[in-house]
Amino acid sequence: xxxxxxxxxxxxxxxxxxxxxxxxxxxxxxxxxxxxxxxxxxxxxxxxxxxxxxxxxxxxxxxxxxxxxxxxxxxxxxxxxxxxxxxxxxxxxxxxxxxxxxxxxxxxxxxxxxxxxxxxxxxxxxxxxxxxxxxxxxxxxxxxxxxxxxxxxxxxxxxxxxxxxxxxxxxxxxxxxxxxxxxxxxxxxxxxxxxxxxxxxxxxxxxxxxxxxxxxxxxxxxxxxxxxxxxxxxxxxxxxxxxxxxxxxxxxxxxxxxxxxxxxxxxxxxxxxxxxxxxxxxxxxxxxxxxxxxxxxxxxxxxxxxxxxxxxxxxxxxxxxxxxxxxxxxxxxxxxxxxxxxxxxxxxxxxxxxxxxxxxxxxxxxxxxxxxxxxxxxxxxxxxxxxxxxxxxxxxxxxxxxxxxxxxxxxxxxxxxxxxxxxxxxxxxxxxxxxxxxxxxxxxxxxxxxxxxxxxxxxxxxxxxxxxxxxxxxxxxxxxxxxxxxxxxxxxxxxxxxxxxxxxxxxxxxxxxxx
Length: 515
Ligand SMILES: Nc1ncnc2c1ncn2[C@@H]1O[C@H](COP(=O)(O)OP(=O)(O)OP(=O)(O)O)[C@@H](O)[C@H]1O
Fold this sequence. Notes:
Blueprint: E1 9-10, E2 15-25, E3 28-43, E4 49-54, E5 59-63, E6 67-70, E7 79-83, E8 88-93, H1 97-115, H2 127-132, E9 140-141, E10 145-146, H3 147-156, H4 178-187, H5 194-199, H6 206-216, E11 221-225, H7 231-241, E12 247-251, H8 254-259, E13 263-264, H9 265-269, H10 278-285, H11 288-296, E14 299-303, H12 310-324, E15 334-338, H13 361-366, E16 369-373, H14 382-392, H15 398-405, E17 413-414, E18 417-418, H16 426-439, E19 445-448, H17 457-463, E20 469-472, E21 477-479, E22 495-502, E23 505-511
Parallel strand pairs: 11-15, 11-16, 12-13, 12-14, 14-15
Antiparallel strand pairs: 1-10, 2-3, 2-8, 3-4, 3-9, 4-5, 6-7, 7-8, 17-18, 19-20, 21-22, 22-23
This protein binds adenosine-5'-triphosphate.
Adenosine-5'-triphosphate binds near residues 230 and 233.
């Protein structure tokens, strides 16, 4: 007797991220940010689609009756759901991009199914009927998105059927979840699962797959490679493939941590600055909540590991063994370390000896597999790649230097927005900016900040990226230094050019920053 083939489907696990809720009431926006929350898709007793946000302190939920998705920054782990009926924007950030993609695909797919009227007839109930209904308050996790539903959604959107995606014919292959099908794909690149290929449009390189295999085999892995070889790209894939409840995502710095939706290694470890003695670190890590986290951890991801101080790494290894009461290296935690020791070193105080973590006995004990990515994916000009590789090793031949010099006056400009020039010192930045501003012929407009707390003015001036006095002219280049409205691309780092001043407002043409 033949067993019926299981239909491929995609289930959606809770999404861990930061959510900023922006609600406009009587013309005034109200904002609140919730870090480290879990987003879940579900249905209530009336079969309405519900988005539920569970945080450490409270839970909130919204009905997903009419919404729009803004996914321009999906690759950076950011997206916005605009709820039209309530003038509310839910801005998600710090999410693992792959998980966010799956979450939004399921959301969009279920919306399309609901629009077709297949999600039940309870929607026809009036508000009064709902109010008077004796149905219990319920939240039931949404069912997985089936391939059939997905195909239907694509058809209704006027997009080509699945088999035509990327112009490749795809084989029918049962798969339960994006994770399991993804693993199959990574283990056997020749066999492509219908679901996984669709949800993972970009395939890993052979080198990247080797890292995935090493991680799946449970080894503690360090993978490295020069700039652009896809370390962060791969790390995000790994994050999406490990069990969320026992995987902790960290990085040596806050900026690096925010890129992968994690926290700093220091914050995870709970040992303060880590500069105290081992006994002090142990005392701090033994606090109830911290120790519980250490015990819960089975897989620890550390990005930009080159910046982790060697002595700190040694202390953490000892803390892990002690708190977890496990004598295995790093207390039995699988380490997934990523970085390039030829890029950024640990931050040290003046006169302090610099110890990289790979130089420590703890590293020797813990890291059982080291792999290097060599295939540069960011650039495809072989000559440029060769120059970059040589410079990475501190070598710059005369021919390479000459080639680089030839690009000095290149004008990289799009829509009037010039490429940003990076400097090592603020003084150089200020000087270049004022030279360019003076070159513009228009009238200067001066904007002076208004501080509500005059006592804190000095502190504010010293700690904010923009000075108290801002001078602008039509045609000047500007950069946002704060996330204003993620859904509209007004994010920290977005660049623009001032096109006009109208009624006290500054009109700008903006462009989001590329990596
Ligand atoms: N397998 C792949 N297929 C297609 N594109 C890829 C692949 N791997 C990486 N990329 C792309 O290559 C670019 C560089 O990748 P990534 O930023 O992860 O490199 P990196 O090694 O982390 O670089 P850096 O050291 O500068 O941070 C990105 O645009 C990424 O999307």
